[in-house]
Amino acid sequence: MTTMSLVGIALVAVLVGVVLFRIVPVVRTYLLYRGKRIVTCPDTARPEAVDVAAGSAAISAFSGEPDLRLDQCSRWPERRDCGQECLKQIETDPDNCLVWNIVSNWFEGQSCASCHKRFGRLRHLDPPALMGPDQKTIGWDEFPPQQLPEIFSSYKPVCWNCHVTETFRQLESEVVVERKR
Q1: Which of 97, 75, 80 lies closest to 148 in space, CA to CA?
Q2: 55-67, pLDDT tens digit by residue?
Q3: Measured on CA atoms in the order 33, 50, 96, 133, is the torsion positive or negative?
Q4: What is the mean pLDDT of residues 17-30?
Q5: Distance between CA atoms of 102 and 46, rounded to whole angstroms?
Q6: 130 vs 169, which has greater pLDDT?
Q7: What does the pLDDT read at residue 139?
Q8: Within a 10 A sphere around the Cβ of 73, how many other Cβ atoms?
């Protein structure tokens, strides 16, 4: 092998190493900032649902600190030109404003309103539901995310199995037979 080819191989190895070294923060940033979040709007002091432009933040993380910008907000398009001060809440604690984590924390430790089974940490495969004051069940994800804090104060938790059973009972009431135990 010639000296020139060894230098070329070394240069390529260094370049690949640098790129791989910078890819880790890119992937970490994307995973950290993706997903719907609930923040308190600085203008209204009310909960609002936002999405961070995770792809843009990840790309900017390649060269240094990620540059966070909102991609969507429940107050847009009317308030699209806001200062996006709510991003400070996301930078401070990105995990605790993620909708899935808020929902999971609320359900954890509570009992199903129908079967009384206690909830553990939620899994995406069998998402729970909520029982309203009218005793009907509805999936938590059918509500606008910014309304969840208010909804949680007046609805009860229901496990996936009971939600499916109640939904069937509501939709097919003529074929359901109630038996007393």
Answers
A1: 97
A2: 889 888 878 888 8
A3: negative
A4: 82
A5: 16
A6: 130
A7: 92
A8: 20
| Dihedral sign of CA atoms 146, 53, 41, 109 in order | positive
Q: CA-CA distance, 128 to 162, in Å (whole number)? A: 9
Q: How far is CA 43 from the centre of its chain?
A: 23
The first and second tokens of residue 97, run together, are 């404003």
The C-alpha atoms of residue 46 and residue 119 are separated, in whole angstroms, by 28
Q: Given the structure tokens 């954890």, which residue do they identify? A: 108
Q: Which residues of 76-108 are buried (b: 16+ CB within 10 A; e: fewer)?
A: eeeeeeeeeebbebbeeebeebbbbbbbbebbe
Pull the structure tokens for residue 30: 């994307």
Whether 72 contacts 135, CB under 8 Å: no
Residue 111 confidence (pLDDT) above 90: yes
- SS3 letters across the chain: CCHHHHHHHHHHHHHHHHHHHHHHHHHHHHHHHCCEEEEECCCCCCEEEEEECHHHHHHHHCCCCCCCCEEEECCCCCCCCCCCCCHHHHHHCCCCCEHHHHHHHHHCCCECCCCCCECCCCCCCCCCEEECCCCCEEEHHHCCHHHHHHHHHHCEEECHHHHHHHHHHHHCCCCCCCCCC
Q: Largest Cα–Cα distance of the chain, in whole Å?
A: 88
